[in-house]
């Protein structure tokens, strides 16, 4: 990754590290030689000057080197981080279905990979080069030490070995601890987000549950902290032991050196070199421990990153997919059994239904009947456990999911509200049209949202976000609705328009619809509750438009408002994951089943409302009396 991110930088980093490694040893030797020259009583001016100049040069490099190395390391880390992040998210795109994103353990892995994956490769490279540098410095000093006392050299190295082994063990424990507290930290994060989430704020305040959630968050933090403290204490104990051992060894060595100097066994230069070498080897040993432990820990955490990169695709994609081509006959669900995981109950139990080419099919049924699940299987977000979904007779499993999805236009029940501009919110429906303002506006007009969008402070370029402010650098913003935007039902704009623009639920839903319209003529149009957030008038208008749009096209509509599905060519009623009734609106009413019952209830509701409205003036009069 480092190599891919920048060869020149990696080489520069390596060369600089090597240079920094030999500096301390060079300084120590120069100092020894100078001292020996002076202590010898016949200092040669030329030699002393040369050694002095070398020492001064080394001093300059010592002063500048760390900053340059730091810059190169950071720059290299930034570039590697970019490559790592790109690879990670490219890998998540391989999961063509939804199952991976619903698996908590895998989500934890992705979170760890995100948290550590970007920085880890840079840190490993840095630690590896740092380790190489300390090894070189340490080796230089060690050789120097051996020239004076091989025993001393062996003692210093021997004291460093247990410390290294202990630190590696500790780092494995730390990585395991971080993995272990992952779910706890995820819950803490969830509560923290909830406490400042604008959508949650209403309920939190009304129900007075803020303090309760805060306590739950604190409990998660306390649990995570307890684990971290336990690990820290263990590290403290082990490090105190290894540190004391190393210090005792070095202290003994220093005593021995000073005594031998007092005895006159060694020269002044030897003593200086000895002192520098002991300190240097020890610094190198502890530096090596730090670098290796950092690298080790990062490599362990990097395992999560690699696990995401190497994870099997959630849905098998054939190496040579069958080209399905434009829909000609229709789509068929054949005895489809599906559950979200082996631990979940069946969401679909032997569902068979057909959406004929050019036909408008509607799905109706109670909450949890399995309607949206059918939609997800049609888009191959999951594969059925038994049975199959066929596109003109071809099993979706044999098709390329990208080709399948390119043939589908959809408004999902849980559509997205992108914190992006209005134009982008529509344009994401078809990237080819993202910058085609004409097409974006046409889609918005069809979805009945053009007036609202053009009335925004920056029109289609207005940022629709509660998180990000609008582009402030583009000059002043004209407040208030412009063009043909209706002032009364326009969105709420904070302050000068550079802060978030708040759209209503229905306006967001229209944007989602515009996004689907932008996809234009797709083979299959799926509308899962496309008008649930709209007022009666808007709903009528939208369904009128949809009726036009669906005419002669293959479409699947899901709606709880049975008035909206009555025009479908064919209505399929699901209950408990089974198809319990199907037919036309009139046919289903005549058979007096679930559909007829639900329709009667809805019609009754409207009638009662009408009766109440009719009674209202009388009630008011009687109240006045
Ligand atoms: N991601 C999921 N993981 C586990 N179970 C799920 C998931 N999504 C839906 N279910 C379950 O599958 C069943 C069918 O859900 P589905 O969303 O298809 O119903 P629906 O008919 O669309 O309901 P509604 O009318 O409320 O939208 C329900 O019992 C639901 O709890």
From TrEMBL:
<feature type="transmembrane region" description="Helical">
    <location>
        <begin position="44"/>
        <end position="69"/>
    </location>
</feature>
<feature type="domain" description="ABC transmembrane type-1">
    <location>
        <begin position="11"/>
        <end position="297"/>
    </location>
</feature>
<dbReference type="InterPro" id="IPR036640">
    <property type="entry name" value="ABC1_TM_sf"/>
</dbReference>
<dbReference type="InterPro" id="IPR027417">
    <property type="entry name" value="P-loop_NTPase"/>
</dbReference>
<dbReference type="GO" id="GO:0005524">
    <property type="term" value="F:ATP binding"/>
</dbReference>
<keyword id="KW-1133">Transmembrane helix</keyword>
<keyword id="KW-0067">ATP-binding</keyword>
<feature type="region of interest" description="Disordered">
    <location>
        <begin position="474"/>
        <end position="498"/>
    </location>
</feature>
<dbReference type="GO" id="GO:0016887">
    <property type="term" value="F:ATP hydrolysis activity"/>
</dbReference>
<dbReference type="GO" id="GO:0005886">
    <property type="term" value="C:plasma membrane"/>
</dbReference>
<feature type="transmembrane region" description="Helical">
    <location>
        <begin position="116"/>
        <end position="136"/>
    </location>
</feature>
<feature type="transmembrane region" description="Helical">
    <location>
        <begin position="236"/>
        <end position="259"/>
    </location>
</feature>
<keyword id="KW-0472">Membrane</keyword>
<feature type="transmembrane region" description="Helical">
    <location>
        <begin position="148"/>
        <end position="170"/>
    </location>
</feature>
<dbReference type="InterPro" id="IPR039421">
    <property type="entry name" value="Type_1_exporter"/>
</dbReference>
<keyword id="KW-0547">Nucleotide-binding</keyword>
<dbReference type="InterPro" id="IPR003593">
    <property type="entry name" value="AAA+_ATPase"/>
</dbReference>
<dbReference type="GO" id="GO:0034040">
    <property type="term" value="F:ATPase-coupled lipid transmembrane transporter activity"/>
</dbReference>
<feature type="domain" description="ABC transporter">
    <location>
        <begin position="331"/>
        <end position="601"/>
    </location>
</feature>
<dbReference type="Pfam" id="PF00005">
    <property type="entry name" value="ABC_tran"/>
</dbReference>
<dbReference type="GO" id="GO:0140359">
    <property type="term" value="F:ABC-type transporter activity"/>
</dbReference>
<dbReference type="InterPro" id="IPR003439">
    <property type="entry name" value="ABC_transporter-like_ATP-bd"/>
</dbReference>
<dbReference type="InterPro" id="IPR017871">
    <property type="entry name" value="ABC_transporter-like_CS"/>
</dbReference>
<keyword id="KW-0812">Transmembrane</keyword>
<feature type="transmembrane region" description="Helical">
    <location>
        <begin position="271"/>
        <end position="293"/>
    </location>
</feature>
<dbReference type="InterPro" id="IPR011527">
    <property type="entry name" value="ABC1_TM_dom"/>
</dbReference>
<protein>
    <submittedName>
        <fullName>ATP-binding cassette domain-containing protein</fullName>
    </submittedName>
</protein>
């Amino acid at each position: 990754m480092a190599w891919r991110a920048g060869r020149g930088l990696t080489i520069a980093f390596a060369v600089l590290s090597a240079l920094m490694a030999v500096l301390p040893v060079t300084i120590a030797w120069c100092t020894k030689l100078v001292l020996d020259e002076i202590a010898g009583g016949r200092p040669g001016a030329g030699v002393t000057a040369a050694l002095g100049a070398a020492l001064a040069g080394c001093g300059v490099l010592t002063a500048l080197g760390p900053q340059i190395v730091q810059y190169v390391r950071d720059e290299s880390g930034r570039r590697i981080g970019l490559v790592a992040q790109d690879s990670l998210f490219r890998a998540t795109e391989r999961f063509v279905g939804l199952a991976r994103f619903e698996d908590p353990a895998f989500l934890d892995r992705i979170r760890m990979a995100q948290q550590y994956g970007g920085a880890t490769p840079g840190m490993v490279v840095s630690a590896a080069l740092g380790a190489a540098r300390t090894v070189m410095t340490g080796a230089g000093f060690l050789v120097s030490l051996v020239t004076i006392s091989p025993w001393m050299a062996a003692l210093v190295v021997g004291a460093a070995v247990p410390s290294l082994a202990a630190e590696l063990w500790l780092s494995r424990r730390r990585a395991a601890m971080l993995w272990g507290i992952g779910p706890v930290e995820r819950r803490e994060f969830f509560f923290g987000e909830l406490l400042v989430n604008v959508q949650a704020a209403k309920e939190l305040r009304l129900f007075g549950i803020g303090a309760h959630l805060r306590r739950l968050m604190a409990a998660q933090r306390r649990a995570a902290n307890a684990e971290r403290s336990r690990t820290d204490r263990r590290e403290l104990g082990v490090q105190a032991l290894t540190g004391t051992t190393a210090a005792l060894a070095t202290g003994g060595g220093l005593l021995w050196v000073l005594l031998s100097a007092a005895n006159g066994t060694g020269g002044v230069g030897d003593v200086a070199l000895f002192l520098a070498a002991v300190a240097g080897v020890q610094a190198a040993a502890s530096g090596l421990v730090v670098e290796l432990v950092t690298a080790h820990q990062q490599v362990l955490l990097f395992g999560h990153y690699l696990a995401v990169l190497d994870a099997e695709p959630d849905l098998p994609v054939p190496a040579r997919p069958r080209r399905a081509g434009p829909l000609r006959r229709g789509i068929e669900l054949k005895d489809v059994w599906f559950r979200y995981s082996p631990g979940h109950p069946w969401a679909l139990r032997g569902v068979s239904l057909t959406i004929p080419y050019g036909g408008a099919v509607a799905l109706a049924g109670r909450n949890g009947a399995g309607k949206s699940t059918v939609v997800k299987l049609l888009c191959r977000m999951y594969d059925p456990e038994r049975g199959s979904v066929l596109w003109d007779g071809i099993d979706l499993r044999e098709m390329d999911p990208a080709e399948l999805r390119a043939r589908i236009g959809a408004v999902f029940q849980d559509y997205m509200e992108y914190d992006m501009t209005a134009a982008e919110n529509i344009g994401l429906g078809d990237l080819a049209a993202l910058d085609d303002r004409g097409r974006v506006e046409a889609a918005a007009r069809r979805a009945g949202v053009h007036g609202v969008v053009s009335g925004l402070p920056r029109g289609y370029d207005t940022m629709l976000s509660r998180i990000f402010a609008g582009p402030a650098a583009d000059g002043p913003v004209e407040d208030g609705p412009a063009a043909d935007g209706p002032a009364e039902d326009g969105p709420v704009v904070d302050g000068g328009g550079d802060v978030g623009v708040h759209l209503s639920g229905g306006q967001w839903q229209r944007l989602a619809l515009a996004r689907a319209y932008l996809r234009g003529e797709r083979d299959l149009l799926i509308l899962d509750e496309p008008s649930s957030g709209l007022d009666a008038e808007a709903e009528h208008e939208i369904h009128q438009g949809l009726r036009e749009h669906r005419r002669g096209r293959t479409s699947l509509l899901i709606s709880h408002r049975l008035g909206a599905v009555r025009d479908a060519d064919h209505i399929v009623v699901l209950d408990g994951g089974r198809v319990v009734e199907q037919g036309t609106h009139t046919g289903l009413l005549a058979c007096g089943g679930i559909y007829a019952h639900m329709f009667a209830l809805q019609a009754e509701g409207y009638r009662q409302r009408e009766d109440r409205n009719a009674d209202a003036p009388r009630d008011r009069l009687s109240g006045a009396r």
